Amino acid sequence: MKLSARNILPGTVTEIVTGAVTSHVRIDLGGSTVTAAITNEAVKELGLKVGSRASAVIKASDVMVGVDD
Questions:
Q1: pLDDT for 11-20, tens place per residue?
Q2: Complete DSSP assignment for 33-48
């Protein structure tokens, strides 16, 4: 599979919280964690389980920056 996204961050699934329609999947990137909201169907199709290797693929047109007051 080829992707246009350039931010592909490999890691390990550490938690899957399943809701009525979507799941929140946490991926440990080796010290940092990213959380993705995906459909429950996608979790099943990808065979995601805690401990699975997975990549966070980030494609965003905007990035927001914040600082403490």
A1: 999 999 999 9
A2: EEEEEEEHHHHHHHT-
How many angstroms separate the CA atoms of 53 and 10, rounded? Answer: 7
Domains and CATH numbers, the chain: 7-51 (2.40.50.100)
Q: Sign (positive/negative) of CA torsion 58, 63, 35, 23?
A: negative
> Where does residue 61 fall: left (phi above 0), alpha (psi -120 to 50 degrees), or beta otherwise?
alpha
In angstroms, the CA 39 to CA 17 distance is 11
If phi > 0 it is left, if psi is from -120 to 50 it is alpha, else beta; for residue 10 that is: beta
Q: Where are the alpha helices (DSSP H) in 1-69?
A: 40-46
pTM comes to 0.83
